[in-house]
Amino acid sequence: MPCSVTRAAEPRSGTPNVWDFVQRTINTVTAMTSLSPVLSTAVTGSGPALLLAHDVGTQAENDFGTIIPALSAGHTVVAPDYPGSAGTPRAEGPLTLDGLADAIVAAADTAGQDTFTVLGHSLGAAVAVRAAVRHPERVKGLVLTAGFAAPDQRMKITAAMFLDFLARQDFTGYAQLAVLTAFGDTMLSAFAPEQIEYALQKIAGSVEAGAEEQFTLARTVDVSADLERITVPTLVVAPVEDGFVSPAASHALAAGIAGAEYAEIQSGHLVAEAGPAWLEHVDKFLAAHGL
Asked: What is the pTM (predicted TM-score) of this model?
């Protein structure tokens, strides 16, 4: 629940920083309380920490499940779920990017991890960037997959369509749009009709409770001004068959971050389908930078 404080009087001479400190504290608490719940988090493995920030309308296991076992072999993997995803209760109010960034860092705190590399997918890439800006002493590296600084018009329209299906509780339409935008052409072409039908039924029957708040946030995200403030090693991975976030957005993301490395994978937005290729780029990057 958001909180507010009435400013009764100016601070007395000799204590000019007291009110500023209080106000900063209030702003932090307000960002966090807009989320309400503590994030449900899975922690696996041991070694340098990797903090995961998943995509919109899904959960960490669905997003990163194909690579978590391999990553856990040499790292402590901290995988929180946003409000309304998996085991995390739905938020009481609108989500904010600052709130999500602080919440995943809080999940790392709970897991006993002081520093970490953040792996963000799509909306999670924006969350990762904001976490690096808000907590520069904590974030040691970034891996941004299918990321964007701000949604383009196609993405805004697509997100609005998802929200419309949710508002009408048309989960079949929601699932059809998800398949069209998340699955790449290679994957769709390889599917038999019965596999497509199974995917549609599974998606329609497992819509995350917090999808509405997450898609609403995704439509308004803008970390463009944050990019020049990123100083940690960064890898940007573009799925070239992505139907939700244009690969051009990854190009722009890499161009905006000084020294960012760039790689492509043959995949749709659902990068789990390209697990081995995705993992190869991530492993190489982590090893090269001692992360």
From this structure: 0.87
